Amino acid sequence: MHTAQDPRTASAAWARSRVHRRRWFTVLLAMATATALGAVAGPILGIDLALRPGTGLVQEVGILPINLTSLAAGLLGWALLVLLERWTARARRIWTAAAAVVLVLSLGGPPAAATPEATAVLATLHLVVAAILVLGFRGTIAGPRRPALASPQK
After folding, report:
1. Which residues are listed as membrane-spanning (predicted)?
2. Fewest Cβ atoms closer than 10 Å to its Cβ: which of 2, 45, 51, 105?
3. Residue 107: DSSP 8-state
């Protein structure tokens, strides 16, 4: 038995699923881009992505930590965005400011790199992942003037 669904409910569900797909795509794109940059910098360009934190021990930065870090950044950013969308009408502004603060704080890590080249690559990774996440997520945030990824008109 097929029940009729209110068109407004169907439209809202379609918009939500589209937002979720776009946000997943954004997280996966950030991960893939970070992986590609790490793969190009390390094996292809010969830049040793290593950190020398305060302990003096050298820690290699491989593809797995790059993947997991970009995934964590994307999922945590998404989680904060969902909470802000539920709690405030100014989610876009607050989330963007929070993302900018996190980016600035994250840039404190690359100077601990073992070489200037590694510092440049790691800083670039942080900037690229942040740009993808901010631009990708901002496009899905419902604002006071427009709904998030409005559904097509019928």
Report:
1. 24-51, 63-82, 94-112, 118-137
2. 2
3. T
